[in-house]
Structure formats: structure tokens, C-alpha cells
Amino acid sequence: MNSAITVFLKEVRENLRDKRTVINTLVTGPLMAPLIFVLLINTLVTRELNKAEAPLPLPVAGAQYAPNLIAALKQNNVDIKDAPADPERAVREQDADVVLRIDADFAKAWDKGEPAQVEMIYDASQQDARGQVARLHKLLDAYGQRTGALRLLARGLSPSILKPLALADRDQSTPQSRSGMMFAMLPYFFILGGFIGGMALAIDTTAGERERQSLEPLLANPVPRWKILTGKLGATTAFAIVTVLLSILAFAAVGQFLPTEKIGMTLTLGPRFVAATLFVMLPLAALLGSLQTLVAAFAKSYREAQTYLSLLMLVPIVPTLLLSILPIKTQLWMYAVPLMGQQVTILRLMRGDPVPESALLLCFACTAVAALLAALVTAKIYHSERLAISA
Amino acid sequence: MIEVKNLHKAFGKGAKRVAAVDGVSFSARDGEITGLLGPNGAGKTTTLRCLYTLMQPDSGQVLVDGIDAAVDPVAVRRRLGVLPDARGLYKRLTARENIDYFARLHGIETQTMHARREALADALEMRDILERRTEGFSQGQRVKTAIARALVHDPKNVILDEPTNGLDVMSTRAMRSFLKSMKAEGRCVLFSSHIMQEVAALCDRIVVIARGRVVADESPDALRAQTGEANLEDAFVKLIGTDEGLAA
After folding, report:
1. A14 with B105: Cβ contact below 8 A
2. CA-to-CA distance for A262 and B57, rounded, in angstroms?
């Protein structure tokens, strides 16, 4: 086993001397995720807050036909503006989020007690406009209902006739679960951290070493190949784990300062989160390290290895996308699937949902078995003759 | 002592199958320098790769100090010092660290390692580059470092694949005297080359390989006598039947 440690120490030392790689893996990689998240959350929070409190700018066509309605809107913090010449086009070209058009016959119909026509012109595919549209819709509904109630009263009827159902919303989401949905992609950043952390070494120790013509002399030493591989895999995994650890710590630290409570969300990023996340990520780092080494050993050149590994990097996105798009209920088998298990665990921990110890163990064990299998396959590739021959 | 018996090694499959080594036999004795001479593509490198167990021969036997390479490859590699055709160094490590890495892989005690490394640094005249990172080394400095790391475990048998390749005149001369000193120490030295003068000046025994076969296995004088050519280069051309691949 001594020679495996010799290989491990040499790979670590050599990699640490490569300043660019060190900065990429140990600084940029772990900090990238939290930074992106801070930006994202800040923009989101500021936008939400602005939308709710700021005056709603509203271009209105035909405002003169419905002075009462306009007055009611103005009271509700709506900033009435002149309508553009072509409202539909203005909305399509995103010059306005929503335009209100009041029919010329509005007053006539209103006086007769018939439905009076108002039109909301908007583009539902514009994410940004949704808040404004919903807000205006609510205001108009409220105005219509108030008027309807008054008319019924004037005829001596109770307004409750029009409300056979008493509907009340009882939202069961907690602040944690709401933030969980928002943070569904966070596990991917941790997994990506591990991936970036191991990538440089995985390529360097196999395809790189062969391309630099140092693999053949190395294999001429009286050390079984599996020991050399063990040392190299160990070094790759160690860097992956350090990167993951740094990502988790950086995130837990940055998470404290995110203004999530302003939109009614809280994150649980305490010591238990850090410990449990690291626990399930350990075997995953080993699995990714083995897979990266396997792919890189298989590649004919450094460039080819880089291409393959970039493609491999997309694989961890799959469970992330699945779980954020499809509202699947968490089931025990999910913990047993590498990548998905980590995804589910991290998400639930963050939301403050319980994750039983047995599930953590299951996740760890299954991923560890997968990592071992990947290492064995890599060892097999490593014993092939053509591995060492450079060109 | 290195013995090679009826070695065969082919690459590719079916119609594309090419026999790189096609029944090579020879032995290299202790205290002698044996030269493996042949044009480019004759099978020298493949033969040597089978010797240091990087490749497995399709058939035939390799014995190093009586140990069968197919039975105990690790023990064979322990008895060999190898300068392969590929001689890349780790450029982010110093020359000393490069040498020590291989010494540790051989499982040498730290004290022995220091003594051996210092002795080699003197013999190869590379003391001034020992603490420098190998990035930016000249070809000669690189070969010196590669040889030092190949010999740090004090092997009885030394295999060098075209050791003077890419070296200037001074470095080549230094390399030749180094090979002679290894012979004087009683080692078995086996090296491959396609350069005539080199082989003529150094070797006790010349094994000429062409198209994967041994076409001669003699002392330089016997070789000249056998072909009836006074000039070794002419003898060589006569042996391999063509002067193709001789341009160094």
C-alpha cells in the first residue's frame, strides 16, 4: 500500500503547484455557486418587493369613458398613463407590461346595468409582466364585485346571493418548503463542485500523463498497476471532496446573509445540514472521481478527455431537472440512486424536512458501491496494454 | 543477464495484423554492452517493451536474471533500470523530486536513496540542475534526469531505448562514457540504436533486427568478418538487405 501513498502524495503535490488549477478548483469552483445564488436571490427579492409596493404604471386607452373606474384604480396606487397608439404592438414589443382599454360604450352599458367592456392587453409569456397583470386583474375584480354588491343592495337583495361558496385559501407550504422549490438547483452546484474539483487531476493523471510521455516510465516501476491507480484515484477524490466541502461551507456562510426572510422564506443551513450533506457527498465524490478517471483513461488524448468530461458534466443535471420539473413525492428508493439520492437529501435538509438516518446510510452505501464498481472497471481499463503507449 | 527466447508480438486483427516482433531470440550478458541495432520500425521498441513487461508477448519467453517476466513481472521490473522511448518528466517537480519519486516507488530506504541520488548526480554531472523544476530543461538535462531516476534503485540490468536520441555531440559523448562505466560496474547493459558509429564504438555484442527478426547476433569484428565488409555500415546494409530507414 506504501507505493499507492507515494503516488497519492506526488499527485497532490504536483497539482498544488499548478496555481491556476488550484485557484479554479479550490477558490472559483466553491465560490461560484454561492455568488451566483446571492445575485439571483437578491434580484428576485428586490423585484418581488418592488412589484408589490411600487405604484403600478398603467397605460389606459379610453380613460375618459370611465372616470369612476379610473378614480378607483388611482386610489389603489395605480399610476394612470396615456395609452400608446397601438396597445397590442406596444405589449408585443415589451414597451408596456399591460395596457387597459375601455370601450367607448362603457358609460352607456354601465348606466343600463349591463356588463361594460374593459380589455386587458398583455403577453402571458412575459415572466416579468405576470405580477403586474395579476395585480390589475385583482383590482378590476374587486371593483366589479363592489359595484355588483351595491347594485344588489339598491334592489333590496343581499349581496351574499352571489356568493354560494365561501372560498378560503389555506396554503400549507412553510417558508422552508417555498425556499426549497426556489433552491431546487442548489444540489447540482454541490455536485458540480465535486466534478470541477476532480476534473483537472483525473485528466492530468491519465490522458495528460500519457501525452507528456511520463506514463510509460512510471509503469516500468515494480509497482502493480492497481496500486498506482489507487493513488491517483485517491488524489482525484481528495480534491473533489475538498472542493465540495468548501462549496458547502461557503454556501452555509453566505446563506446566513441572504435576505430570504423578506419574501417569507428561511433556509436551514446549520451544522446538521453541513454534516449530512458532506456525508452523502463523500461517496459521490469518489464515484465522480472514478468515472472521470475511467473516461480520461479511455480517451486517446488530453483534448479528447476534456471533451468527454464536459459531456459527462451534464449527467448530474438530469435528476436535478427531473425533480424540479416533475413534482415527485420523495420515496425511499430515490435515496438508493446515486446523484438522485444526494439531490433529494440536500433538498429535504435545506427545507427542514426530516431525513431519517437510515435514508442517509442507504444513500451513502449505494453510492459507495457504485463508486467501487466504477473503480474496478477503471482498474480493468488500466491493465490494458494500450493504456501506456503514447501514440 | 537478460534472455529473450523466440519472442512474438503482433498488432491489429485479421487482414491488418502486423507482426512487429517475429521470433526474436538473444541474450545480453552481465558486464557487457549489448546493442540492439535496426532501422526505424524494425521492432526494437516493441521488443524492449516486452522486456520491461509493459507489453505481453503473444508467445515466447523473457528471462531477467532467470526470472520469467510472464510469471513475476514485478520482480523483473525491480531488477531492471529502464529508459523508455517515452521519457517525460513531471515538469512541476524538481529534478530531485522526479528522481526521489521513482526511488520511493522502488521502496528504497531514505538514506540509500540520498546516497544513490547524489552519486548519480555526480556521475551524470547534473548537480547544478537538481533543485530546478524540470519545466524548460534542455533535451540533455531531461535525458540526464530520466536516466538518474531509472537507475536510482541500482539495477543490475539496464535497458535504454535510443538513449542518445536528440542529444548534441557533447551530451552523446558523456552518455557513451556513462554506458561504459556501467559496464565496468558489471551491469548488463542493453540499448537500442539505429546509429552505426555508436554501436560500433560501444558494443561487445550487436544484435541486428530487421522486420521483426534477428538477422545477426555477433561481436562487431565477427559481424564485419561474416559479411565480408570492412565498414560496419556496409555490413549492416547488407544484413538488412536495404538502406531504407537508415537516415538518422
Report:
1. no
2. 72
CA angle B142, B144, B150 (to 5 degrees): 105
In this complex, do A213 and B88 lie within 8 Å of one another by their Cβ atoms? yes
CA A83, CA A98: separation in Å to the nearest integer?
10
Contact A220/B54, CB-based, under 8 Å? yes
Whether B86 sits inside 8 A of A217 (CB atoms) is yes
Find, in chain B, the residue whose alpha carbon is nearest to that of A216: B86
- Per the CB < 8 A criterion, the answer to whether A233 and A262 are in contact is no
Placement of cell 454534516 in the chain = A275
Chain B touched by A222 (CB under 8 Å): yes
Nearest to A217 among B84, B93, B106 (CB): B84
Residue pLDDT, tens place only, B158-216: 999 999 888 888 888 888 899 999 999 999 999 998 887 788 888 999 999 988 999 88
pLDDT in tens, A126-147: 877 887 888 899 899 989 888 8
Angle at alpha carbon of residue A320, lines to A315 and A323, rounded to 5°:
135
Kindly list the distances between the CA atom of residue B59 and the CA atoms of B21, B69, B88, B209, in Å, as whole numbers in the listed order. Answer: 10, 12, 30, 18
Nearest chain A residue to B97 by CA: give it. Answer: A10
Nearest-by-Cβ selection for B90 from A2, A14, A223: A14
Task: Name chain A contacts of B52, Cβ cutoff 8 Å.
Answer: 220
Cell of residue A78, nine digits: 395605480
Global confidence as pTM:
0.80
Q: Which residue has the cell 513487461?
A: B53
Asked if B84 and A219 touch (Cβ cutoff 8 Å), the reply is: no
Please name the residue of chain A whose CA is at the shortest distance from the CA of residue B53.
A220
Q: Can you tell me the distance from the alpha carbon of A273 to that of A353, in angstroms, rounded to the nearest whole number? A: 11
Cβ separation B77–A222 shorter than 8 A: yes
The three-state (H, E, C) secondary structure of chain A, written as one string:
CHHHHHHHHHHHHHHHCCHHHHHHHHHHHHHHHHHHHHHHHHHHHHHHHHHHHCCEEEEEECHHHCHHHHHHHHHCCEEEEECCCCHHHHHHCCCCCEEEEECCCHHHHHHHCCCCCEEEEECCCCHHHHHHHHHHHHHHHHHHHHHHHHHHHHCCCCHHHHCCCCCCCCCCCCHHHHHHHHCCCHHHHHHHHHHHHHHHHHHHHHHHHHHCCCHHHHHCCCCCHHHHHHHHHHHHHHHHHHHHHHHHHHHHHHHCCCCHHHHCCCCCCCHHHHHHHHHHHHHHHHHHHHHHHHHHHHCCCHHHHHHHHHHHCCCCHHHHHHHHHCCCCCCHHHHHCCCHHHHHHHHHHHHCCCCCHHHHHHHHHHHHHHHHHHHHHHHHHHCCHHHCCCC
Residue B179's alpha-carbon distances to B47, B120, B159, in angstroms, are: 20, 13, 11
A386 contacts chain B (CB < 8 A)? no
Name every residue in B having a CB less than 8 A away from some CB of A. Answer: 49, 52, 54-56, 74-75, 77-78, 80, 82-93, 97, 101-102, 104-107, 146, 149-150
Chain B partners of A18 at a C-beta cutoff of 8 Å? 92
For chain A, which ranges sit under pLDDT 50?
A: none
Tell me, what's the ipTM?
Answer: 0.91
Beta-bridge partners for B19 = B10
Model confidence pLDDT, tens digit, residues A234-259: 999 999 999 988 888 888 888 777 77
Give the model's pLDDT for residue B247.
Answer: 44
Q: Count the residues in chain A.
A: 391
Residues in chain A closer than 8 A to B80 (CB atoms): 220
